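QUALITY CONTROL LOG
STEP: pairwise intake check
CHECKER ROLE: data steward
CRITERIA: each record must contain a sequence immediately followed by its structure tokens, with no blank fields

ENTRY 1 OF 2
RESULT FIELD BELOW
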Amino acid sequence: MSASGGTKAIVAALAANLAIAVSKFVAFLFSGSSSMLAESVHSLADSGNQALLLLGGKRAQRAATPQHPFGYGRERYIYAFLVSIVLFSVGGMFALYEGYEKIKHPHELEHWYWPVGVLVFAIIAESFSFRTAIKESNALRGKQSWTEFVRRAKAPELPVVLLEDLGALVGLVLALGGVGFALLTGNGVWDGIGTLCIGVLLILIALVLAAETKSLLLGESAGTEAVEKIETAIVAGDTVTGIIHMRTLHLGPEELLVAAKIAVRHDGTATEIAAAIDAAEGRIREAVPIARVIYLEPDIYSETEAAKGADREATPGGPATSPAGH
């Protein structure tokens, strides 16, 4: 997995979650707190999620085959989608079930210092993991807001780890609140309420992750900045006079497909046009290094044909918006 895949953040989160899961489960055994059981399952699910992300990054590095000529880059999206399913089912639904059972059959907490101590330790450990994810993300985020970064990032690992760590920290605060109110009031129902809140939180995060990774699985185009660089690179030569239409598609987080019909001079020879296409491909790769698969089709621009609009039959899913200015 490349550096942009956030491997450091994934490993940090995995190490923190494994340690936290063990400590939470021990606290549950001594105290009987359902919040602690839900949190231990949550941390265990998060550990499995980070293992899935690492596995997806490893499998995505496989070389292209005749059956998969564009490689396996999208495996990273598939495993990120699996993370959202695990978080929803194992983390969220289990917490809802435990919370319901605790509210229905409350009991007083025993050895309260175990869950409180473990929760404080977990908050500290998760804070270090979250800090690593933020530091790795800032290197790629640029001027984007955090919401824009999560929605627009083409590499799924860092948004997944960010949302997981944020959910873990909020969940720990909810668990600490549930345990604290249960101790203050002597009513175990508060522990169940905290557990229910954790379940709702995890399900909401899982739904956000599922929506974003589904979009990546369907196939997203390059970002606006990359599209502008590609357009500029194509028309920088003398032979290419414009772009008739262009499509871009992410084959993986670090691999972009570019397909364009370009307008060339009507008096150009086949040799000149071939040389112009080669030069344009070189300029595209220099401007946007992840543009690794490029198909440029030369044509003569016709205002009459352009006025007819896009051909729905020729474009999967219907016509796409033409690049600005062309």
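ENTRY 2 OF 2
RESULT FIELD BELOW
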Amino acid sequence: MSGKLTYKQSGVDTKEAAAFVSDISSHVKRTQKQRSLHQAFGLFAAAYDLSSYKEPVIVTGCDGVGTKTEILFELDMVETAGKDLVAMNVNDILTTGGDPLLFLDYLGISNLEQERTRITRLVAGMCDYLESCNCILAGGETAEMPGVVPESIVELSGFCIGCCEKSKLIDPKTVQPGDVFIGYKSDSFHANGWSLIRRILEENPDVVDEEELRSLLQPTRLYHDVVADMRSSNVIPKAYAHITGGGLPENLERFLGNYGADLTIPFWDNPAAQKILKHADPQDRFNTFNMGIGWVAIVKPEDVEAALKAGPGGTVIGTLREGRGIHVKVQGE
């Protein structure tokens, strides 16, 4: 050795990075059972053949998991963070009517040698969800940044690329008064509102026990089953909405223009979630959390019966009307 500094001595180990790629290779292969990439480019880039589409339209999404990751990592629920990352992106792609084809991740860490096991588990969680919705883990970036990313922290972002036949794109501009809102159950708070939840837990440490907290940390539900069932029933929704930050009002108002609705949602039969909600502002809870409804389809009245059978958990929550604004209340309140 020359006695001068090496890259490894500065905190970055390229050989460790190559070994990590080998660690996750079996998980990556799980996502290519039905779809596969077109050619190989030495991990620099990925290609997908769209020739099976007549008029392909590319759809894209980008999202993260937010502050939920802090609690997930504290409780060693690492795989759940990977599933959340996929669901937050794939669900957004599904709102277009498109098929999620390719997924990429960004992981920013301090030291790969210390984090290799944990981020391998993260990728395993991603691939569990990607495999279930037939989406390829096409690549990503694991950035080792000592001195920039604090130890024990993992920066986490995801990117999804999908495709849809131009004629089958969902068009929210087609909504009209009388169309019906179908809400589909969430599995928990998903990956939104956790800054408020963390504040509630900080000020009320005994509000839930660890078992209840773990139940609240269930991964974001993938709604590809709802979309697939709609297609098989030949139902073409007017619009889909993934209920994330901003709750039902914000996520529906963003595409309804001069229309609105007065929605009545079922009481969320989730005892642990209700304990948290008691400490949240009664009105702000609707603008922060999904309140038990993680996905909404807007359909024609004649399609309601079929839409209710699409995936588990569908229920009518309201009807589109003239006039801006989404107002939400819980049944019985």
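INTAKE CHECK: passed for both entries
DESCRIPTIVE NOTE, ENTRY 2: The beta strands are 56-64, 99-109, 136-144, 155-165, 180-185, 239-242, 259-265, 293-299, 314-322, 325-330.
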